[in-house]
Amino acid sequence: METIGIIDVDNLSAGGYPELRFTRNIPAGTAVKRGNILGADYKPIVDEGEVFGIALNDIGASDTIRTCVISVTGEFNVNDLSTGDTTTPMEWWDDLRKLNIYVRQPAP
Questions:
Q1: How many folded domains does the chain comprise?
Q2: Which CATH number does the domain housing residue 58 bear?
Q3: 33-70: pLDDT as tens digits
Q4: pTM of the predicted protein model
Q5: How many Cβ atoms sit within 10 Å of the Cβ of residue 81?
């Protein structure tokens, strides 16, 4: 049997709402972590701006443009989401909801 890929299971996904994914080029010099809420410039969202989606893989900062998989719909665990500043994912709840991205609080 041939191994084609490996999936690390985590708690980022939080439900069954259909996910729509795209690949987008991340600007040179930008680091992205899985679970970052990204803005329209494909960088982690800061303070204000337009929300685009959720990063689904890690991208290290480098001098070259890299490709990231981004979910633009779906259900996500609030504890595994992050921003590029001191805001919290719940502060972006309304903006995410407009894109059919739903933030869920896991049961205790």
A1: 1
A2: 2.40.300.10
A3: 999 999 989 999 888 789 999 999 999 998 888 899 99
A4: 0.85
A5: 22
